[in-house]
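Hi U.,

Before I forget, here's the chain from the pilot set. I'm dumping it here mostly so it's searchable later in email.
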Amino acid sequence: MGKSINYISTRGDSDTLKFNDVIFEGLAADGGLYVPEKWPTLSDEQINSFEEKSYNEIAHDVISVFLDDSISSQDLTNIINHSYSTFTNPEITPLRKFDQNNYLLELFHGPTFAFKDVAMQFIGNIMNLYLSRKQRQINILGATSGDTGAAAIEGFKNIDNSNIFILHPYNKISEVQKKFMTTVKSENVYNIAIKGTFDDCQSIIKTIFSDIRFKKDNNLTAINSINWARIMCQTVYYFYAMSRLDSGNKSVMFSVPTGNFGDILAGYISMKMGLKISKLNIATNENDILTRTLNTGIHDLRDVKTTSSPSIDIQISSNFERLLFDITDDTELVRELMSKLNSNRQYELSKEIVRKMQDVFTSHSVSQDEVKEIIYNYYRDYNVVIDPHTAVGIKSAQKCEEEFDIKVFLATAHPAKFNDTVSEIIGNNDYIPLKVKSMMELDDYYVILENDVMMIKKFLEDKIK
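Structure:
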């Protein structure tokens, strides 16, 4: 399976890796992100065959092309089946139809009620297989804007040969998001609340991983979307969704609420692999750096605004670097742009690069008042309860000037994860599952630390040793 796939850094100055090594890497040694040396493609015949296949079977066919011979076809089947056995819907990511033109791709049926479960359950199981073979211990380090941490903890809490350290911005995620992480009482789980924003948490992670000696001495690995396997797993539900649509020659747009650009990058990669998506809509809230970049070519960091959709409350979109590399095929330019971003907090893209992006992407930002309007209207009109991030995706898609035969909105989280916002808008909390209600009564286990890299390093060393 996928024996010819090599992985290279977006900045061009790191070793080429195979999948069984790249899965344990976060940042490359040169500060870049790993991507396949070339995109594998699926034939039209194979993609058409997905209409008759289950989600798990589609996942096998899509993921297998990115792997190497360290994983057999049967190993992959077992890992996929085990990973998605915890999902509450047999379709894994079911497609809900509103009308002939509008669909909701529900990505929240995993154990922590968010789309991050799709990748994290798989990653936990495949890493466990590799670790068991090598009798190796790892320490997982990640930052979360709310959902990644919970999904990662759920995926790794029972893996004996690992510790997991998750940073989240103190008092800047929803109470339910926090509870999904901090109520897990396990000796290998460490929750760290940082006095800062998600971008601060992410910056700490990148700084630590750029310290190659510290990373190796402490056997650190990453599970944020800087880890290639996260993106790989997320491509699957684009193929699944298209297989369930009667699209024919119709134009299809996917609208994706995104802050770190990983979820929508997976859609872009699925197009590179042969999936016939017409357009991808980058749905942003008032933290609209991606919208501004696509519309003006100027990537300009501003202060993070706190909104009702906290997973989009981001200015530094790590995975955007992968897109820049793929569009330009120029590691020197990527290094130059990332250097400017680090030193000047901005860079400007050429008109040619922006045009290439606009061929694939559109983008529109959404205000908090518009989020409330969408949540209320969809409850009134369809009796469907959606979370604020999904509302961003829907409203952003409504602003697109182009006409599409079909629009698919990605529902990235269960509304119960943002019940304070949602319940106030729709006037009840009947949609909140018993699991969430019970969890809210449990004790929290986490520490609060300053926004300081050295303090986090010392905490890691103390707990690891």
